[in-house]
Amino acid sequence: TDFTTGSVDVQFDRQNLEDRWERFVHGPKIELINRITVENAARAPFLWLMGNGPGYGLSAVGMERGSDFAWEYLGAFVANTASYRAGDMTSITGSFYSGILTMWSELGAVGYLLYISLYVYAIRRVVLTLFRNQYVEPLQRVLAEGFVMAMLTLLLSSILIDTFFAKYYTVSLWIWAAMVWTPAEKSQRSEDGDQPSEVGNPPEALAAPAPSRWARSPSRR
Fold first, then answer.
1. DSSP 1-27
2. Burial class of residue 112 (count of CB atoms within 10 Å of its CB; 0-12, 13-18, 19+)
3. What confidence tens digit (pLDDT) does each residue in 151-182 have?
4. In 49-144, beta strands by DSSP E
5. pLDDT tens across 136-150, in order?
6. Residue 130 and residue 128: Cα distance in Å, rounded?
7. Distance CA 29, CA 123 (A)
8. Burial group, residue 85, by CB count within 10 angstroms (0-12, 13-18, 19+)
9. Residue 27 in contact with residue 93, Cβ under 8 Å?
10. What's the alpha-carbon Rg for the chain, to the nearest Å?
């Protein structure tokens, strides 16, 4: 059965999901991640630790520049793309590009961890602010809750796709971070307790009216 196209029911068919999972686990992406992040620690310790430099790792840029390192690892997959095993570039799980591969191969373990720490710090800061109930504005609190999930999604998806270099992901997320970085202060109206009364009228509407300037004073009677 061809599960590559069809309705939603076909795509989420149990057999289809099992086949895709097997292809992913034993496919080029996981194989390359294992080689770069685990095996190279013994094979090439310095490159594993410090990387090959920007533009010379396992990325489309590295392939375009003719990087020896990129072709050493990706050449066999690029040369034979007829089968899913060699790399089906129309499938996220079957392709051999991902954020962790690009960053680790270019910047090494040190650079990758430093880069990831920026995202982890942002998540930690917002989570702690949420737990301390420091977001007094409901809208900002909702944005903060959504921000944490969006950041976690970005980090997890970087295993499958090259999200770190997608400007529409990273730029929008850091703008989002700026919106929730510092809790907004309570408005002066809220601090003064200037809230509508139980019958729906503002307090100033219930106050006694100011005397008219034309009212006769007792001395004129």
1. ---SSS-HHHHT-HHHHHHHHHHHHTS
2. buried
3. 999 998 888 888 877 777 888 999 999 999 99
4. none
5. 999 999 999 999 999
6. 5
7. 27
8. middle
9. yes
10. 29
